Amino acid sequence: MDELVVRRAGFAPVKGMRHLALDGIDLDEQGAVGDRSFCLVDVDAARVLKTVQHPSLIGVVARAEGDRLGLTLPTGEEASGTAARSGRTVTCDYWGRSVDLDLTEGPHAELVSGWLARRASVAIAPRGGVVFGDPLTVVGTASLRELGRRTGRDEVADQPARFRPTLVVETDEPHVEDSWVGQEVAIGEAVVRIGGPVPRCAVIDHHPETGVKDVRLLKALVRERPTNRAGEPMFGVYARCVVPGRVTISR
User: Fold this and answer.
1) Most buried residue, 96, 114, 244, 249, by CB count within 10 Å?
2) Candidates 3.30.43.10, 3.20.20.70, 2.40.33.20, 3.30.1060.10; CATH matching 3-31+133-248
3) 16 in the Ramachandran plot: left (φ > 0), alpha (ψ -120 to 50) or beta?
C-alpha cells in the first residue's frame, strides 16, 4: 500500500468560515473529527448558508471544542461560549437530501447576523450532514504549483485553503491524484480510499483569509481541466477513511 506524505491538513468547524490550517487531524469513517460540526441557517427559508453565496464568511475564524464555539470577525469582534441545543430543529434540503439541524442558543448568531447583514442562526450539524460528496478531499502539491504557474499567480501554491482540502499531499506530477481513484492509501495512522474528482465553484477565486475576490482561478481551470455537466472544472479528489487514525503534517 502506498503511503502519502501530508504537507497540510485542515478544515472549518463552521461550514463556510475560514479553513483552518492544523498540525494534525483525526480521521474516521465519517471524515475529519470536528469538520463542519456547525453551520449557519436561514430558518425561514430552511436553507444552509453556503460560502459561494456569502464569501465574507471566509473572513470569520471559528474554533470549536465540544459544544463550545468561538467566533472572531476580521474587525476583532468576538463571540465565545456554549452553543447549546435550543430544543428547536430545522430540516433543510442540502444538495437533494434532507438534513435535520439542531438550532443553538448563545451569542454567536447575533455576531454573524451583523457581519452578514442578514439574520442567520447557528445550528449543530450531524457528522457529514452538510458535506457534498465524500467527507474528505485531497489535493497534490504539484497540482497547486502547476495552477500557480499557468495563471502567473505563484502564491496559489501557498494558498491551498482556496480549495478547502482536508489534506494536501506531496506529489511530483500535476494532477496525478486523478489516477488514484479506487486505490487505498496510507496517510499517517489512517487508510483512505480515493474517490472521484472534486468539482470546483467560484469560491476558489476568493482570498482564503479575507474572502475578497482577487483572482480568476475558476476560469483558468475551465480552460485547462475536465469539467462536469454543470461546467464545473475538476481539481483534487474526494476520499473516504476506511481505517481510522491520526494524521499529522510533515514539514
Assistant:
1) 249
2) 2.40.33.20
3) left
- Which amino acid, residue 66? G
AA letter at 36: R
Domain definitions of the chain by residue range: 3-31+133-248, 37-124
CB-based contacts of 76: which residues, under 8 Å, 6+ apart? Answer: none
pLDDT in tens, 100-131: 999 999 999 999 999 999 999 999 999 988 88
For the entire predicted model, the pTM comes to 0.94
DSSP string, the chain: --EEPEEEEEE-SBTTS--EEESEEEEETTEETTTT-EEEEETTTTEE--TTT-GGGGG-EEEEETTEEEEE-TTS-EEEEE-EEEEEEEEEEETTEEEEEEEEESSHHHHHHHHHTS--EEEEPPTTTT--SSSEEEEEHHHHHHHHHHHT-GGGGG-GGGG--SEEE--SSTTGGGGGTT-EEEETTEEEEEEEEEE--GGGGB-TTT--B---HHHHHHHHS-B-TT-PBEEEEEEEEEE-EEEE---
pLDDT digits (tens, 9 = 90+) for 56-104: 999 999 999 988 999 999 999 999 999 999 999 999 988 788 999 999 9
| Cell numbers that stand for 100 in this block | 435535520
